[in-house]
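quick one, 425 residues, struct below
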Amino acid sequence: MEDWAEIRRLHRAEGVPIREIVRRLGVARNTVRSALASDRPPRYERAPRGSVADGFEPQIRALLVEFPRMPAPVIAERISWPYSMTPLKKRLREIRPEYVGIDPADRVVYEPGQITQCDLWFPETKIPVGRGQERILPVLVMTLAFSRFLTAVMLPSRQGGDLLSGMWSLISQIGRVSKTLVWDRESAIGGTGRVTTSAAAFAGTLATRIRLAPPRDPEFKGMVERNNGFLETSFLPGRIFASPQDFNTQLAEWLARANTRTVRSIHARPIDLFDTDYAAMIQLPPVDPPIGLTQRIRLARDYYVRVDTVDYSVDPRMIGRFVEVSATPQRVLVRCGGHVVADHRRSWAKQAIVTDPAHVEMAGQLRRELARHRSTAGPRSPQHAEGHHVALRALPDYDALFGVDFTPTSTTPVPEGGIRKEATR
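---
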């Protein structure tokens, strides 16, 4: 490289003849002429050598035509590959795109108020939930695409009612909702490829829509996926949590600072762009959307209802009647005829029993009243459907009516020391 540059300088800049350049540098005349004729620096190129995969390439291509994504170990087995896997994998990297195709990803420009990306993050830290239990709980993460404003909250489960409650909690904090909420194929939102009925009702009330990402395409909502990693590496390390409520309190304090950082991709702080995002969002409706876990059941004798593996007591006076159960991450309410007959704090533990002492006292009172009533009422005589008493007859009366005698006297002699056996009814 240095000789090539020096030859061109001497001849073109200083006008030194080729013969003098040959004498000064000690190189051949043809080398000088080649250097002057070339417009590019010299580069050593090794002659390509053959690969052990060359002889197998027709068989490899025949398999890729029918099965473009066939793994390398399977191809090696099909073609009886006798060498190490490195040459085969190298050849597959070169020729597989011809059959699989190339899927480029375009850069997306997000407009204010258009999109909010949603996802679940599962921190590895186990959270104490009471009753001596610790659980790994889901965290709902939502990111405004334009401003990169980040919100998150921990939930007791990934059931649809709890996810919708978490979404409403975060949307209420913002004060408005984006025109589109992007979700992956979360089972409670759209695991079948279509938005579930409860999620569609939630979106319809807010006048927004839920868009499901294509299957196996995390880049479709890569912004919130990166924020999950941001939470994993920047929020979680070194923290200790006493309860889910403590987790959410610490998370809210951290998010207030995280939204003031400068995001490199937009060269701005989310808190500075939030007002622009907010102005383009949809206003919230005057009524709350349907959220929470709901069910309608007939209250059994044990006067308990089950919500997410936990049993909650209900006023025992409602036994035998239909009750409506609604549960949010914070409370469990049971109503009957529009009146609240049970109000409990939601337990995030598993297989627990939550009892109101007033319900136990009422159940004891009802049992005592029933026992007292039975003791004072005495035996009840049967009554006809019209109300008059029905007479009870003894069984021998029916024997006499039909002329049947079930106790005849036996004429068989009684053996010595024996006992006469008589027929009995």
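The radius of gyration is 42 Å.
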